[in-house]
Design brief:
By secondary structure, the protein is an alpha/beta fold. It starts with 8 loop residues before the first helix and ends in a 6-residue tail after the last helix. It has an 8-stranded mixed beta sheet with strand order 15-14-16-17-23-22-21-19, with helices on both faces. The protein contains 13 helices and 33 strands. About 0% of the residues have low confidence. Helix content is about 25%, strand content about 30%. It folds into 5 domains: about 80 residues; about 180 residues, Rossmann fold (3-Layer(aba) Sandwich), CATH 3.40.50; about 100 residues, Immunoglobulin-like, CATH 2.60.40; about 230 residues, 3-Layer(aba) Sandwich (Rossmann fold), CATH 3.40.50.880; about 70 residues, Immunoglobulins (Immunoglobulin-like, Sandwich), CATH 2.60.40.
């Protein structure tokens, strides 16, 4: 508004515009006329200068009045405290879940904070404006602005605890920036919090430095609530350890329990529940002894009885902070596995199809295989939609085009599984370029190379076929072999040794590989290759009797069955976890006629959200914006069909309820705000006794003084122009 002082130039321009040169006119020689003219012009010039000064001062005072100048606090105290300037107040209420704790019989920390904030709002004066915000929610700048103390108190009382709260330093910086945009001369910031140390400061790089922009004459006060030694045991993590989960088969999962209190806790009971929230059944239990500040991982064994995305939770005994006593997870027991079998030219897939058809059905019984295979010739692979399958089996293709190799590599990277059987390279069974195509595909997966084939499988014409190598060692601890061998054998698991007449020589070179079965010649028979979110398995023998007698051995069916189960359980199909109040991504594989329909998230309380989503090759990427704050299991649905489920849990940092010292908290807040002075701490205020600490520091308003001066100058200008009329000559 001080730019309005430019309007003071208008009277000056009018003054000089009215100046006109006197026109010389010949007249009779009357000397006294010249003398009268000179005296008259002198009085006229004096009047004009006086009117000009009155008009300029009047306009300048009006501009200063609209600019609302304020006398400094020191001068205002010497001149009297009446007429204090209006203030812009920002109230930040910490409504993180740690504020749901109780102490001293005064209700929850959040209730105490709201009572004190409401008492502060009741001290609003005429012209004050209060901006209400919270660490979780109330992020709309227009929603939290109030001019009336009554409506401000009602809004403060309606604040509820929510998960996924932002760090207090970030919330303070956001509120300070809103205050800096205010036109009111006094800017006051009040923070009501339990000083939870783990969520106090902003850990984002560069955020503290950016806080210097918020320094716009903002005075800040920290109002701590609560107190006492924190007592809390939390479930901070749940992991499904078994990569292959089947109906009727035991699956292992682990949970991490953490004690953040100062006292040891003994025999903490933890239970696993499977099923929907209202009809979940307890399926496993465990206990743990926790020292102060220590964590412990407990294991559970659960046996799912139904297929699908099974919701579950790990729950411990209730303590003073119940929000983190439960952690949700999703156990994926696939209803079916879609497998694409690609038959190379001159190859047979008979034994592979028989093995897939023998897969177990519902409840582990032979009610039909859970594998849904589709067999294609290698010439049809280029036109196949790989996104419709969980795993692909290549049985000795003669050639792999560049586009096909690229599609297979992308399929594995995005979470699919690939099982690769070899073929003879060169001679009558294949072209000399087949080995180059195989190695190009393996190179795209970041793995080693095939150097050739050992043995010819012919037995030298009429003689018996001679084995070239045999099994030496199997990594029976790998998840692929989980549940295959009898664990009760004292001498360890016994792996059947088939007779191998021909094997592909594979040279492992990459770090993302693991040999599951090693041959006596030192080369791998079954090699795992990790790539992106998925995996590939290379088997050194083709599934026919010319290469080995493995297809007719008892090991073949469970080995192939477990291999494909393992591959189809790769990263893209595993249950994922999102964090409440934090942005996250979820990749959902899509196939079928409804693949283009939007995905919806349906929460545990029936709330529906249509998140931002992006179409990818064979998948949809869901991007949450951090507004999901209710922990639980969310359904991902498309046109009413359940696509998958995902668990939403608290950030483990919220479980650490230990409070920071007031000195540390004020230093962090001052650094975030970029203030030059210290942040004031209001220690132990009652709900009724809390007073505005900056009220006495407010300056005195001067706008009314300048407005009165402007009116007086305008009246003086009017009187001078009307009653003082000198001769005009």
């Amino acid at each position: 508004m001080l730019m309005g002082l430019a309007a003071a130039a208008v009277p000056i321009a009018v003054h000089f515009f009215n100046l006109r040169r006197p026109r010389q006119v010949d007249f009779s020689s009357l000397a006294f006329v010249r003398q009268v003219e000179e005296r008259t012009m002198q009085r006229l010039r004096l009047k004009r200068w006086l009117l000009l000064a009155l008009r300029v001062l009047a306009v300048a005072c009006l501009a200063l009045a609209f600019a609302q100048p304020v006398l400094s606090p020191d001068l205002a105290q010497s001149a009297g405290g009446a007429g204090q300037a209006p203030a812009a107040m920002a109230v930040v209420v910490d409504n993180s879940l740690s504020m749901t704790r109780r102490s001293g019989g005064q209700g929850t920390y959040l209730r105490q904070a709201k009572a004190r904030a409401a008492a502060l709002a009741g001290q609003m004066r005429s012209g004050d404006r209060l901006h209400l915000s919270a660490t979780a929610g109330l992020e709309d700048p227009q929603r939290g602005a109030f001019r009336n103390a009554g409506t401000a108190r009602e809004a403060i009382r309606s604040v509820e605890a929510r998960a996924g709260a932002a760090p207090l330093a970030r919330a303070a910086r956001r509120a300070a920036r809103r205050l800096a945009e205010s036109s009111r001369p006094n800017r006051e910031l009040y923070l009501f919090t339990d000083l939870q140390k783990s969520t106090l400061a902003d850990t984002l790089a560069g955020e503290a430095a950016a806080g210097s922009e918020a320094d716009g004459g903002v005075r800040a006060a920290l109002v701590p609530v609560g107190g006492g030694a924190p007592q809390n045991v939390a479930v901070t993590d749940v992991t499904v350890e078994s990569r292959i989960v089947e109906v009727g088969e035991p699956a292992r999962l682990t949970a991490t329990l953490e004690n953040v209190g100062p006292e040891a806790r003994e025999s903490i009971g933890a239970s696993v529940y499977l099923g929907a929230e209202d009809r979940a059944q307890r399926v496993a239990q465990a206990t743990a002894d926790l020292e102060p500040g220590a964590s412990q991982t407990v294991s559970f064994t659960v046996t799912p009885r139904r297929r699908g995305w099974r919701p579950g939770r790990v729950e411990i005994e209730s303590d003073g902070f119940a929000a983190d006593d439960t952690r949700h997870f999703v156990l994926h027991v696939p209803r079916e596995r879609r497998v694409l079998v690609v038959r190379g030219q001159g190859q047979t897939t008979r034994y592979v199809e028989l093995a897939l058809a023998s897969g177990r059905g519902e409840s582990g019984s032979a009610q039909g295989s859970i594998f849904q295979p589709r067999v294609l010739d290698e010439g049809q692979l280029a036109g196949a939609d790989l996104s419709a399958y969980d795993a692909v089996v290549l049985v000795g293709p003669q050639s792999l085009a560049s586009g096909t190799r690229q599609a297979l590599g992308r399929f594995v990277r995005d979470g699919g599984g690939l099982l690769l059987f070899p073929r003879s390279f060169g001679g009558q069974e294949g072209s000399s370029g087949a080995q180059a195509d195989y190695n190009a595909l393996l190179s795209r997966l970041g793995s080693g190379q095939i150097t050739g084939v050992s043995g010819d499988g012919s037995g030298g014409g009429s003689g018996p076929r001679q084995p070239v190598t045999s099994f030496e060692r199997a990594d029976t601890d790998h998840p692929l072999f989980e549940g295959v061998f009898d664990p009760s054998r004292a001498s360890g698991p016994r792996v059947e040794r088939p007779t191998l007449y021909r094997v592909a020589d594979y040279d492992a070179r990459a770090a993302e590989e693991q040999t599951l079965i090693r041959l006596s010649n030192g080369r791998p028979f079954l090699q795992e290759i990790r790539h992106g979110q998925g995996a590939a398995l290379f088997m050194a023998s083709a599934p026919n009797q010319e290469w080995s007698d493995l297809p007719t051995r008892g090991l073949f069916v469970p080995l192939l069955y477990r291999s494909l189960f393992y591959l189809s359980s790769s990263g893209g199909r595993r249950a994922e976890t999102l964090t409440a109040g934090r942005p996250g991504e979820l990749r959902v594989r899509t196939a079928g006629s409804s693949a283009g329909a939007p995905l919806r998230l349906v929460g545990p309380q029936g709330q529906e959200v249509t998140p931002r989503q992006q179409r990818l090759f064979g998948a949809t990427l869901i991007q949450t914006n951090g507004r999901l704050r209710t922990p639980g299991v969310y359904d991902v649905r498309r046109e009413g069909d359940l696509v998958r489920r995902v668990a939403l849990n608290l950030d483990p940092a919220e479980s650490d309820v230990r409070a920071a010292a007031p000195e540390e908290a004020t230093a962090r807040i001052a650094q975030a705000l970029g203030t030059r002075g210290d942040v004031q701490v209001i220690a132990d205020p009652g709900a009724q006794e809390l007073a505005r600490p900056f009220a006495g520091q407010a300056g005195r308003e001067l706008w009314n003084v300048f407005l009165a001066l402007a009116l007086a100058l305008l009246v003086a200008e009017m009187l001078a122009a009307r009653h003082w009329t000198p001769e005009e000559a």
